[in-house]
Design brief:
This protein is of the alpha+beta class. 33% of the residues lie in helices and 28% in strands.
């Protein structure tokens, strides 16, 4: 989601700052141009972008969902299939291992008190949250159709700034299992290697994993576990 002032860096100081940071980080010009076009809902050629979703299993048998913005679904589908195959993965249904949630990040200029935060969260339609006493930021999860209203309610009631508001695929707790193999841990970076390749195709990745490495959990699955679609 682009800043409210729009997708033109000449009229949006926030977008201009983001682009300056991207250039400073060495991100290629073509990727930056695609990202700006995506923010306007267009491809670099000016054609409208369409959304598409692909599901896959990546090494070591970890479920993933890949969401893309494209002006050519067939070409993008073939490219993603090739990338997944190169990493030893398989394109197959995995959405049943996730749940779609709205995710909101809010910031405060002062330290937040848990009692005050909890009282306001209870009054909303939030389904989960991440907050620690004395922090200045709050992470909220909502039903997809409640994201905007929950974000605005908490922003107003707690005097918070909405840093971001978007949709995420969250792993279902009942499918998460402990990682008990060093082989699995060693192969996990393979799943992360796909991210740079997906970025060039205006795609984002959700992997079914949760927690730090020392207490890592994965949605481990096999082709036989996938539902018949």
């Amino acid at each position: 989601m682009w800043p409210e002032n729009g997708g033109d860096p000449n009229t949006s100081s926030e977008l201009s700052a983001i682009l300056a940071q991207a250039k400073k980080a060495g991100i290629p010009k073509d990727i930056i141009e695609r990202a700006v076009a995506k923010g306007k809902g267009l491809s670099t050629s000016g054609e409208p972008l369409q959304s598409m979703t692909m599901e896959a299993i990546l090494p070591p048998s970890v479920a993933a969902i890949i969401e893309c913005q494209t002006d050519n679904k067939r070409r993008t589908r073939e490219n993603i299939r090739y990338i997944v195959k190169q990493l030893g993965g398989t394109v197959t249904p995995t959405a049943h291992l996730f749940q779609r949630r709205g995710h909101v990040l809010l910031d405060s200029d002062v330290l937040l008190e848990e009692v005050d935060v909890m009282a306001k969260i209870i009054e909303t339609e939030a389904v989960d949250y991440d907050f620690k006493e004395g922090e200045t930021s709050l992470s909220i999860y909502t039903e997809p159709d409640q994201t905007k209203s929950v974000a605005q309610t908490l922003s107003d009631s707690l005097d918070l700034t909405i840093r971001s508001s978007n949709m995420k695929w969250i792993p279902r707790e009942e499918f998460l299992v402990d990682v008990d193999s060093t082989e699995d841990e060693d192969r996990l970076p393979l799943s992360d290697m796909i991210k740079p390749a997906l970025t060039s195709f205006l795609c984002s990745l959700a992997v079914c994993r949760s927690g730090p490495m020392q207490d890592l959990k994965l949605c481990k699955t096999t082709l036989n576990d996938s539902p018949n679609l």
